[in-house]
Amino acid sequence: MPTILQVSNLIKRFGSLTAVNQVSFEIVEGSCFGLLGPNGAGKTTTIEMMEGIKQPDGGTIRYRGKPLGEQFRNEAGIMFQSTALQDFITVREVMRQFSRFYPHSANIDELADRFALHEFLGQDTRKLSGGQKQRLLLAMAMINQPKILFLDEPTTGLDPQSRRNLWDQVQQVRAQGATILLTTHYMEEAYELCDEIAIMDHGRIIAHDAPDALLAAHFNDVVVQLHATDLPREIGEPEFDAVYRNDSAHIVTGDVNQTVENLLRLDIPLDHLRIRARDLEDLFLELTGRELRT
């Protein structure tokens, strides 16, 4: 597939701070590309330059081989992390308002059907639930039938069911040929939706590949997981150099049988034992040393 968006040696400075430092990657047409990073990594600044909101201090951004221009503005859809909707207007009115920004727009009733908004079209936007508002914002981002869609943390604050519903809608958008650039704080979401991910830290790309390829390149072990109360921190056994997250203890091991034998030898209860493959959250912590939200 051809490249739809190309970022080359992108630089952005704020005074003495270089927020984005020589960032380069390409997004293949029809794919879902995830850009991840802890707060302060330069991810948001990179995206805002790609969207045309900020001007870079160096480097280039090309859409279909050309600098960002009218074609990009007409063919790009953006679902911002936070969007303030005008008060005292209905869902239909706000969709009609946004449709007038473009030379060509989708049919509002068809979008309402697609994103399950029909029963809310006459409702004041202030009365929408979180999930309903996110569906509306996604529909608004699709109003110009975009070829490339930017989704900035689209499921933040949603309950698990609403998040899964939005995943389904994003996958439908992609199935119809749109290219998607996604940012998210949910590693499961990135793994579920993205063909490629790039992880940023300190203004640079520190890892970039398909999710499974990244995991295979960095890990050849698994995690034995227990309740933290079942494996006290003061146990002092070198073979249990566990990492504690919330209420769980995570033991990384290349030999599950030996690890379980050691646990049994020390009378560690195994009622809550879980063995899992390494995941993107493990990779993120391995590479950045930080939780995604810090």
Would you kindly provide a brief summary of this structure?
It is built from ten helices and 14 strands. With 294 residues, it is α/β, with parallel strands linked by helices.
Write out key terms for the chains shown.
single chain; 294 residues; alpha/beta; Rossmann fold; 2 domains; six-stranded mixed sheet; four-stranded antiparallel sheet; 10 helices
Write the layout of secondary structure elements.
Blueprint: E1 3-14, E2 17-28, E3 32-36, H1 43-50, E4 58-63, E5 66-67, H2 70-75, E6 76-79, H3 91-99, H4 108-114, H5 130-141, E7 148-152, H6 160-175, E8 179-183, H7 187-193, E9 196-201, E10 204-209, H8 211-218, E11 222-227, E12 243-245, E13 248-253, H9 256-265, E14 274-277, H10 280-288
Parallel strand pairs: 3-8, 3-9, 6-7, 7-8
Antiparallel strand pairs: 1-2, 1-4, 4-5, 9-10, 11-13, 11-14, 12-13
